[in-house]
Every structure is written in C-alpha cells, then in structure tokens.
C-alpha cells in the first residue's frame, strides 16, 4: 500500500519484550499506511503474491484474512473449554 518494501520479518525475536515491541511497531507501520490512503487510491495497481491486482482487492483480503484467523482462534479456544473474546461466535 505504501509502495515500498515491507519491514523485515520478526525472525530471531524470542523474548516477550522483543515480540511486543515488534508487534507494536507493525501496528504503527500499518496505521501510517492506512492514514494516507484515500478512495482515489482504490483502483491503483498493486502486486499481490505475484499477481497484478488493485489496492481495493488487497484491502478486502485484509479483512477476510483477519476474520479467518479470528475463526481459527475461536475454534482453538472452544476446544480448550475457553470463552472467545468479542462475542462474535
């Protein structure tokens, strides 16, 4: 979305402090990308896993991807007799 290479992966980060700092930085990076995005950019061309598409498709997939992982989390929690957060399911 920002038209630049993404930040490096979290490889090698093992402590809770390192992982928490990396996660916080990733949210800040994403917030900065979204804050400069307007409707005018929705049809801009973008690469997505080796395919050419538009940015609207990528934004749609972001929401779908989050929902998929939330569903996985809910299943894991329920299998372990825990109540999932959020009350969606």
Describe the protein in words:
The chain has 89 residues and is mostly helical. Helix content is 51%, strand content 9%. The protein contains two helices and two strands, in the order H-E-E-H. The chain has helices spanning 16-35, 55-79, and strands at residues 45-48, 51-54. Strands 1-2 form a two-stranded antiparallel sheet. A hairpin with a 2-residue loop joins strand 1 and strand 2. The mean pLDDT is 85. This is DinB family protein.
Largest sheet: 2 strands, antiparallel
Spans of at least 5 consecutive residues whose pLDDT stays below 50 are: none
Tell me the radius of gyration.
Answer: 16 Å
Biggest sheet strand line-up: 1-2
Task: Tell me, briefly, the overall form.
Answer: extended
Q: How much helical structure, as a percent, in the residues?
A: 40-55%
| Number of E strands | 2
Binned strand content: 5-15%
Structural class: mainly alpha
**Integer average pLDDT:** 85
What is the tally of helical segments?
Answer: 2
| N to C succession of SSEs | HEEH
Q: How widely separated are the two ends?
A: 31 Å
Organism: Acidicapsa dinghuensis
InterPro entries: DinB/YfiT-like
Protein name: DinB family protein
In short:
This protein has a two-stranded antiparallel ribbon with strand order 1-2. The protein is mainly α.
Q: Could you name the key traits of this structure?
A:
89 residues, DinB family protein, mainly alpha, 2 strands, DinB/YfiT-like, 9% strand
Topology:
Layout: H1 16-35, E1 45-48, E2 51-54, H2 55-79
Antiparallel strand pairs: 1-2
